[in-house]
C-alpha cells in the first residue's frame, strides 16, 4: 500500500493506492507553511487515518529537488524549502519517501493513466498560472532523481515579434530571474500581460478568453500572438524529446478551442508530421499530482520487491 500526497501552498491532499487503478483520495488538511514539526504531524495524522502501514510514502510538491544535493527548492512553503526533505521525512515517518515535482507527477499520471497511455514518450505540459512540464519515457519519469527536465517555461527564448501581422513583444522579466521566458506569456498571467501590452487593457484571463470566444477582435489579436509565441518553443521541445503526445493541464487546458489552435500551430512547426491531434487535453482531471505520486510510489515498491 502506498500513501501519496499532493502538497500545495494551501492544502495537503492525501490518497491511498494499492494498484494503478485503485487510488482513493483522503480528506484535505491545511498546509502548515512555517513550522516543520506541524508539517510532519499533519502527515503522520493522515497516514494514521489509513489504518495501515504503507510500503512507501510519495509526494507531489510544487518545487524542485536538486539532483546533486537532494535539497528541495520550494519557496511557497518555507518550512520545507532548502531541506533534504526525502531523508528528513524518512527519519520522521519511518517509511521510504519519494519526492517529485508536481508537473512531473502530472506527466506521470497522464503517461500511465491518462491521454498518454500507449505512448512511449510523453511530454506533459502545464498552462496554468504559468508554464511547466514533465517528461516520461518508457513509463519512467526522467526526473526520478530530481532535476529540471521538462521545464520548457524558462529560458530567454520568446520571439521578439509575434502574430499576424507581427508585433513587437517585450522580453518580460520572469520570476526565475531571466527575461523573455515562455512562462511570462504562456499561462493565465501571460494572457493578461499580452492583452495589456497589445491594447492597454487590463482584464482577467477568464474575461479575455470569454471575449475571444464571443468574437472580440482585440481578444482575437491577443490569442493570435499568444499561440504564435508558445507554439515554437513547444514544437522545439517535441523535436528534442521525440514525444508523440502532449497532454496539457492547468486552467488554460480547459479552453478546448485554444488548445486545438495551439495543436495546429505546433504540428505545423515540428519535424515529424502527425495527422492526429498531438497537443491534447489531459484526461486525469481529478488530482493528477496525487495520481502521479501514487504511481511513482507503486513503481518504487514493485522494483524493491523484485530486488528482494
Structure description:
The chain is α/β, with parallel strands linked by helices. It contains 9 helices and 15 strands. The protein has helices at residues 36-50, 85-93, 102-113, 183-186, 188-199, 205-213, 217-241, 256-267, 288-307, and strands spanning 2-7, 11-19, 22-25, 29-30, 56-61, 64-65, 72-73, 97-101, 121-127, 131-137, 140-141, 161-162, 167-168, 246-249, 279-281. The strands form 4 sheets. Strands 1, 2, 3, 4, 5 and 8 form a 6-stranded mixed sheet that branches. A 5-stranded mixed sheet has the order 11-10-9-14-15. Strand 1 (2-7) and strand 2 form a beta hairpin. Helix 5 (188-199) crosses helix 7. It is globular and about 60 Å long. It comes from Rhizobium mayense.
Helical content stands at 25-40%
For the report, how would you describe the main beta sheet? 6 strands, mixed
**pLDDT average, as an integer?**
94
Give the strand tally: 15
Structural class: alpha/beta
Segments where pLDDT lies below 50 for 5+ residues? none
- Tally of individual helices: 9
* Relative strand content: 15-25%
Tertiary shape:
globular
Helix/strand order, N-terminal first: EEEEHEEEHEHEEEEEHHHHEHEH
Spatial extent as radius of gyration = 20 Å
Name the quaternary structure: single chain
Cα-to-Cα separation, first versus last residue: 17 Å
Question: What attributes does this structure have?
Answer:
5-stranded mixed β-sheet; 6-stranded mixed β-sheet; 9 helices; ROK; globular; 308 residues; ATPase_NBD; alpha/beta; ROK family protein
Amino acid at each position: 500500500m502506498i500513501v501519496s500526497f499532493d502538497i500545495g501552498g494551501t492544502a495537503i491532499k492525501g490518497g491511498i493506492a494499492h494498484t494503478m487503478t485503485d487510488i482513493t483520495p483522503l480528506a484535505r488538511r491545511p498546509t502548515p507553511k512555517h513550522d516543520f514539526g506541524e508539517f510532519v504531524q499533519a502527515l503522520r495524522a493522515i497516514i494514521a487515518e489509513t489504518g495501515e502501514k504503507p510500503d512507501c510514502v510519495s509526494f507531489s510538491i510544487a518545487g524542485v529537488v536538486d539532483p546533486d544535493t537532494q535539497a528541495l527548492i520550494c519557496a511557497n512553503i518555507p518550512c520545507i524549502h532548502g531541506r533534504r526533505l526525502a531523508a528528513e521525512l524518512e527519519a520522521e515517518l519511518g517509511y521510504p519517501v519519494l519526492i517529485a515535482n508536481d508537473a512531473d507527477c502530472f506527466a506521470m499520471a497522464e503517461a500511465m493513466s491518462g491521454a498518454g497511455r500507449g505512448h512511449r514518450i510523453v511530454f506533459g505540459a502545464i498552462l496554468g498560472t504559468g508554464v511547466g512540464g514533465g517528461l516520461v519515457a518508457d513509463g519512467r519519469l526522467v526526473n526520478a532523481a530530481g532535476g529540471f527536465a521538462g521545464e520548457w517555461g524558462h529560458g530567454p527564448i520568446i520571439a521578439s515579434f509575434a502574430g499576424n501581422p507581427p508585433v513587437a513583444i517585450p522580453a518580460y522579466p520572469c520570476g526565475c530571474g531571466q527575461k523573455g521566458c515562455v512562462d511570462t506569456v504562456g499561462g493565465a498571467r501571460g494572457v493578461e500581460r499580452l492583452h495589456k501590452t497589445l491594447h492597454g487593457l487590463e482584464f482577467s484571463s477568464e474575461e479575455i478568453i470569454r471575449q475571444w470566444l464571443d468574437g472580440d477582435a482585440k481578444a482575437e489579436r491577443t490569442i493570435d500572438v499568444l499561440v504564435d509565441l508558445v507554439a515554437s518553443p513547444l514544437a522545439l521541445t517535441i523535436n528534442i524529446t521525440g514525444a508523440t503526445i502532449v497532454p496539457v493541464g492547468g486552467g488554460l487546458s480547459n479552453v478546448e478551442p485554444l488548445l486545438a489552435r495551439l495543436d495546429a500551430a505546433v504540428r505545423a512547426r515540428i519535424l515529424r508530421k502527425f495527422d492526429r491531434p498531438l497537443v491534447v487535453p489531459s484526461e486525469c482531471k481529478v488530482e493528477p499530482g496525487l495520481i502521479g505520486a501514487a504511481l511513482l510510489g507503486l513503481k518504487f515498491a514493485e522494483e524493491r520487491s523484485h530486488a528482494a
